[in-house]
Structures are given as structure tokens and as C-alpha cells.
Amino acid sequence: MNLSQEDWVNQLAADENAVILDVRTEDEFNDGYIENAVNIDINKGQGFIYEIEELDKNKNYYVYCRSGARSAKACQIMNELGINNAYNLLGGILDWEGDTVNP
């Protein structure tokens, strides 16, 4: 499900069962990420599938990438793997107005 940044942030803030998932590359992730995000690179192909299959299917996943395209694909894959609550951040981190962590 695609959410605007406002909806994504509001829903995330009210969700005690939330996991933030960054599906960008490790290099992109190391350039800055949304606080508490877990990084699983969608470009890893089958490796991405394996890591997604290990996730708790009862959690709610708030997914983002650079612009929203890879995270939309990631949400689709997650749905196919039995994770029903995956929320895509429209516009990705490029449009993100909140704080980021810069390691």
C-alpha cells in the first residue's frame, strides 16, 4: 500500500508493531537513513527473498528507498511472501522531510 509521507509518518508513530525497512544498497544506506531502519538491499535478488522470508509476518513494515520505486516493488514481493502489512513511502527518502541518521 502506498502512503504519502504524512500518512506514513502518522501511521508509523501510532504503530507499536512497526519495523522500518530500507531497501536501498548498503552504500546508499550509509549515506543516511531514517532512524531505526533495517537495511535489506532489494538488488540482492534471491538474497533479498531469503531475508524477507526470515522476517516476522505479524509485524507491520514501513518500507522506503531513494524515490519510492524499489520500495513499491519490495512491498509487492513482501505481499507475495505472506507479509500483508507493508507500506511504501511515496517519494522515498528524496522527498523525506524528517530527520535522518548519518553514520
UniProtKB/TrEMBL annotation:
<protein>
    <submittedName>
        <fullName>Rhodanese-related sulfurtransferase</fullName>
    </submittedName>
</protein>
<dbReference type="GO" id="GO:0016740">
    <property type="term" value="F:transferase activity"/>
</dbReference>
<feature type="domain" description="Rhodanese">
    <location>
        <begin position="14"/>
        <end position="103"/>
    </location>
</feature>
<dbReference type="InterPro" id="IPR001763">
    <property type="entry name" value="Rhodanese-like_dom"/>
</dbReference>
<dbReference type="InterPro" id="IPR036873">
    <property type="entry name" value="Rhodanese-like_dom_sf"/>
</dbReference>
<keyword id="KW-0808">Transferase</keyword>
<dbReference type="InterPro" id="IPR050229">
    <property type="entry name" value="GlpE_sulfurtransferase"/>
</dbReference>
<dbReference type="Pfam" id="PF00581">
    <property type="entry name" value="Rhodanese"/>
</dbReference>
